[in-house]
Write a structure and sequence with these properties.
Elements: E1 2-9, E2 13-16, E3 19-20, H1 25-35, E4 39-43, H2 44-48, E5 58-62, E6 75-77, H3 80-85, E7 93-97, H4 99-105, E8 111-117, E9 125-126, E10 135-143, E11 153-160
Parallel strand pairs: 1-7, 1-8, 4-5, 4-7, 5-6
Antiparallel strand pairs: 2-3, 2-9, 8-11, 10-11
C-alpha cells in the first residue's frame, strides 16, 4: 500500500526554503507513530532538511545526482518508479515529500494521511489538490490550537473511492 503523508495548510502549502512553516508537536508524534518500522520515500531536498536520518525507518531518496552520498542504511534511486521497486511488496510504504514527489505519486497512491493546518501561509512547496471525485475522507480528527500548537489542525485520512 502506498500512502502519502503530509501536513499542508488551507492553500496546500507544505514549506518554504526547505523547511516547515509551522511547529506542531502532536503532528510530529503522529508522523513518527505511522511511519516507524516502514520504508519512507522522499526527494533529496526533503532528506537534506533532516538533521540526520529518522530512526526506525528505511529512507529511500530520489535524486538525479550521480554518486549522491548518504549514510549507511539509506537507499538512493533516480526515479519514483525505482523507489517503489526497492520497497518490500505487501507492506505500507510512505511518501513523505516534497511537493514534486507528492505530485508524481498522488495518482498511484492508495491512501493519504493529511494533517490540514487551518491557516494560509506563503510557501514554495505545495501538496497537490485532492480530487474529491477520486478521494474520500474516511477519518477526521480536529485539534484546536493550544500552548504547544499555534494553529488549529485536522488529521484527515483519505482513500480512493
Amino acid at each position: 500500500m502506498l500512502t502519502l503523508i503530509a501536513a499542508a495548510s488551507e492553500n496546500n502549502a507544505l514549506g518554504k526554503d526547505n523547511d516547515l512553516v509551522w511547529h506542531l508537536p502532536d503532528d510530529f508524534k503522529r508522523f513518527k507513530a505511522l511511519t516507524s518500522g516502514h520504508f519512507i520515500i522522499m526527494g533529496r531536498k526533503t532528506f537534506e532538511s533532516f538533521p540526520k536520518p529518522l530512526p526506525n525507518r528505511t529512507h529511500v531518496i530520489i535524486t538525479r545526482q550521480k554518486d549522491y552520498d548518504v549514510p549507511e542504511g539509506c537507499i538512493v534511486v533516480n526515479s519514483l518508479k525505482k523507489a517503489i521497486e526497492v520497497c518490500p511488496e505487501n507492506e505500507e510504504i510512505f511518501i513523505i515529500g516534497g511537493g514534486q514527489i507528492y505530485k508524481q505519486s498522488i495518482e498511484i497512491a492508495d491512501k493519504i494521511e493529511l494533517t490540514r493546518v487551518h491557516t494560509t501561509v506563503e510557501a514554495d512547496a505545495f501538496f497537490p489538490e485532492i480530487d474529491e471525485d477520486v478521494w474520500e475522507v474516511i477519518q477526521s480528527e480536529y485539534h484546536p490550537k493550544d500552548e504547544k500548537h499555534k494553529y488549529d489542525f485536522t488529521y484527515l485520512t483519505f482513500v480512493k473511492r
